[in-house]
TrEMBL record:
<dbReference type="GO" id="GO:0005829">
    <property type="term" value="C:cytosol"/>
</dbReference>
<dbReference type="InterPro" id="IPR050559">
    <property type="entry name" value="P-Pant_transferase_sf"/>
</dbReference>
<dbReference type="GO" id="GO:0008897">
    <property type="term" value="F:holo-[acyl-carrier-protein] synthase activity"/>
</dbReference>
<protein>
    <submittedName>
        <fullName>4'-phosphopantetheinyl transferase superfamily protein</fullName>
    </submittedName>
</protein>
<keyword id="KW-0808">Transferase</keyword>
<dbReference type="GO" id="GO:0000287">
    <property type="term" value="F:magnesium ion binding"/>
</dbReference>
<comment type="similarity">
    <text>Belongs to the P-Pant transferase superfamily. Gsp/Sfp/HetI/AcpT family.</text>
</comment>
<dbReference type="GO" id="GO:0019878">
    <property type="term" value="P:lysine biosynthetic process via aminoadipic acid"/>
</dbReference>
<dbReference type="InterPro" id="IPR037143">
    <property type="entry name" value="4-PPantetheinyl_Trfase_dom_sf"/>
</dbReference>
<dbReference type="InterPro" id="IPR008278">
    <property type="entry name" value="4-PPantetheinyl_Trfase_dom"/>
</dbReference>
<feature type="domain" description="4'-phosphopantetheinyl transferase">
    <location>
        <begin position="91"/>
        <end position="154"/>
    </location>
</feature>
<dbReference type="Pfam" id="PF01648">
    <property type="entry name" value="ACPS"/>
</dbReference>
Length: 227
C-alpha cells in the first residue's frame, strides 16, 4: 500500500502529507486515505477512481468533479497506530481513541478544558483514576465526532458548553439535532479503546467492519445539548 501511495494520493493530500514530519503520523495519514478509498471502491484495483480532497482544517471529501461527491460524506480518525473511517449518505463524524498513554495533565485541568459543569461534577464522584479517565475520554471522543460531523474543527470555546447525554435524557429546549453511538474494546496490547460516530439520524444504522478484529461492544447511544 505505502509503496504505491504516490500514484493515488491527490495534490492536496500530498501537500498535507508533506507537512507531517513524524513517520508514524505519515503512515496513519496514508492508511486512512487508503481505507476511505477502499470503503468507497470495495476493490483495491479501483481506488484510483475515488480522488479525495484534503482541505486545510477540514475533513476529507470526494473531489467535487466526482459524480458521487454530493451524495457521500466522509470522516476519518487515527490514534496510536489504529485508524477509523466512515462513509455515509448523511454528514458524519467518527473518532477513535486508544488510551495507550497516561495523560500529562490532571483530570481537573482536562475537565476544565472540555467538560460542562455537570460533567465535571460527575467526574468528581468517580474515585478510580482509570475509570474516571475512560469516562472523560468517552465524552472527548463523542465531542470530537460532533465537531467532525460539523466540519468545523474543535472549537475550544464551544467545547466545554457541549454536553453529551446518554439515551433520551436531554431537556428538549437545549437538545441539538445530532446523535451519536459509542463502542468500547481493548486492544491486543491491553489498552482501552473508544469509537464514536455522530450523525443527525437518531437511529443510525452502523455497519462496523473491523479488520483489526477488536470485538467492539456497544456502550450506548448519546445525544447532545448546549449547556
Amino acid at each position: 500500500m505505502s509503496a504505491s501511495f504516490e500514484r493515488w494520493l491527490t495534490a492536496s493530500e500530498n501537500q498535507r502529507l508533506a507537512q507531517l514530519s513524524v513517520p508514524a503520523r505519515r503512515e496513519e495519514f496514508i492508511a486512512c486515505r487508503y481505507a476511505l478509498r477502499w470503503l468507497l471502491a470495495r476493490d483495491v484495483r479501483q481506488i484510483g477512481q475515488f480522488p479525495l480532497e484534503a482541505p486545510h482544517g477540514r475533513g476529507p471529501r470526494l473531489d467535487t468533479r466526482h459524480p458521487l461527491s454530493h451524495l457521500l460524506h466522509l470522516s476519518l480518525s487515527h490514534s496510536n497506530g489504529y485508524i477509523a473511517c466512515a462513509v455515509s449518505s448523511q454528514p458524519v463524524g467518527i473518532d477513535i481513541e486508544i488510551l495507550a498513554r497516561q495523560p500529562r495533565s490532571t483530570w481537573h485541568e482536562r475537565a476544565a478544558l472540555a467538560c460542562t459543569d455537570h460533567e465535571r461534577a460527575e467526574l468528581s464522584t468517580i474515585a478510580d483514576d482509570e475509570q474516571r479517565h475512560r469516562r472523560f475520554m468517552q465524552w472527548w471522543s463523542l465531542k470530537e465526532a460532533w465537531f467532525k460531523r460539523a466540519q468545523t474543527g474543535v472549537d475550544l470555546a464551544l467545547l466545554p458548553r457541549l454536553a453529551c447525554v446518554q439515551g433520551d435524557a436531554i431537556p428538549l429546549p437545549r437538545a441539538l439535532a445530532e446523535h451519536a453511538r459509542c463502542w468500547t474494546t481493548r486492544t491486543p496490547e491491553g489498552h482501552a479503546a473508544l469509537l464514536s460516530v455522530c450523525s443527525q439520524i437518531p437511529d443510525m444504522r452502523c455497519e462496523l467492519q473491523d479488520d483489526a478484529q477488536l470485538r467492539w461492544l456497544c456502550a450506548g447511544s448519546f445525544g447532545y445539548a448546549m449547556a
